[in-house]
Amino acid sequence: MEQLTLLLEGFSNALTPMNLLWVLIGALLGTAVGVLPGLGSAMAVALLLPITFSLDPTAAFIMFAGVYFGGLFGDSTSGILLNTPGNSSAIASTFEGHRMAKNGQAAKALATAALGAFFGGIVATTLVVFFAPTLVRLATVFGPAEYFALAVFAFLAISAVVAESVVRGIAALGIGLALVLVGVDGPSGTARFTLGLPQLFDGISIVVITVGLLALGEVLHVASRIHRDLVATQIRPKGRTWLTAADFRKALPAWIRGTAFGAPFGLIPAGGAEVPTFLAYGTEKQLARRRNDPEFGTTGSIRGLAAPEAAGNATAGTAMGALLALGLPTSATAAIMLAAFQQYGMQPGPLLFERSGDLVWALLASLFIGLVILVVLNMSFAPVWAKLLSIPRHYLYAGITVLSMLGVYAISASLIDLWLLLGLGALGFMMRRYNVPVAPVLIAVVLGPLAETELRRALAVSEGDPGILVDSPITITLYTVLALGLIISAVQHLRHRHDHDRTPIEEDVPA
Questions:
Q1: Contacts of 246 (CB under 8 A, 6+ apart)
Q2: Mind listing the pLDDT tens digit for each residue in 387-440?
Q3: Where would I find the H helices in 233-356?
């Protein structure tokens, strides 16, 4: 139980009035920046990093802990309320969370997200403390072929599960893959689909795509139906602002499943928390289909929000373990944290626990403290955040549009990005109009570069032999599970269509 003794020493260093004040400030600032559309958790850490340079290392890292998880809370808050996730890891939480918010249950959705993030973060941080050496070994078995298989698994599984139509899901996946082809090809240095514009050499930013498809697409969709939908001019909260015992019983299994998805993915650089959050969401959708859950996809499901939220924070928790033990940043936020460590002359890796053990264990202890402070803050402020939706709809959506444009422009100060935002907003509107799912587009944008890079690496290692792609137990298992899942999904879609086609005929038969 050496780890427990060291962790208690870390708590003794972290639990001082001044350090608690720093973690509280970090949590508040991280959440505030994360809530702003277009910024997100990575930007929160980057913007607040200079503030910590005047602090001693222990206070700085404790403040980092608050900023780190606070930014993740803020990502989900903006996604649930405004349909504009602050980071791509919060996209899956947005689908059911925003439906709950539009149904007047914004405070309950925020409470579900806060508790789910707390649950996933606590479990993952505990695993890091006690099982870091064992968990890190899982990362060493993944090579280029395994990463490519994982990306393909995520592509097709999510396209088949999330979409009501497999054809529409695959079409949406194709749109996403087309978007990521824009830019300079890394290995060859060749410009692809840039129309000769230097501003497109770096590709289309994930922020532009996410804000355009989700936020601006939703604004245009609502504007097109504002005279046809018999709705009030504002969304009125209803029900309780906390979880009832029945809600908790619904959410708990989803939190557990989401944590189980998220914890392993924090150890491998497979696109951050996007894969486990989408897989967790897809699993909940499949389970909802089996139990005929009328809330999923309509008024918003607690399970569909709880699982990806727990998965995202579980991934963030174990990502911190991979960063400390291996020096391996598995997300953009972790990469900025690595720069912060180096600023203080610390190099994360196998020797970090020996050379700077007191700081590391104080940081791990502060992760627990930060999660507790954040769940208390967010549970308390959930009704306050929810009042954003009390603003009349025409003012609310006008504000979302302005914030979206400002957030995108603030990143690169490029007018091309604003035109792209408008074009992608129109694309998002057309996808909603013709019932084409947005999720496969987003997962393709997030994982497309990873899939292309790892495929090229695998083929380079094998000198062009495609057999390397199915040459390990992990790849064979992933492809086998994927094939079985697609077959089952196709059968379910055909059965659902068959039952749907028969229903009108059966209704016309006289009694």
A1: none
A2: 666 667 677 678 778 877 887 787 677 888 889 889 998 998 998 888 887 778
A3: 245-265, 274-290, 302-326, 332-343, 352-355
Q: What SS3 string covers 344-409?
A: CCCCCCCCHHHHCHHHHHHHHHHHHHHHHHHHHHHHHHHHHHHHHHHCCHHHHHHHHHHHHHHHHH
Q: What letters, b where the CB count within 10 A reaches 16 and e where it falls short, cover 209-226?
A: bbbbbbbbbbbbbbeeee
Provide the 3-class DSSP secondary structure of residue 183.
strand
SS3 191: strand
Tokens of 111: 């409470």
Q: Are 442 and 172 in contact (CB under 8 A)?
A: no
Q: Is 36 helix (H, G, I), strand (E, B) or coil?
A: coil
Report yes or no on whether pTM surpasses 0.85: no
59, 21 contact by CB (below 8 A): no
Of 41, 38, 93, 207, nearest in space to 439 by CA: 93
**Which residue in the block uniquely carries the two structure tokens 């989900």?**
76
Overall residue count recorded for the chain in this entry: 511
Amino acid at 136: V
Q: How far is CA 130 from the centre of its chain?
A: 26
Residue 187 neighbours by CB under 8 Å, 6+ apart: 456
- The model's pLDDT over 332-361, given as tens digits with 9 standing for 90+, comes to 566 667 767 766 777 676 667 777 777 778
Angle made by CA atoms 318, 320, 345, in degrees to the nearest 5: 160
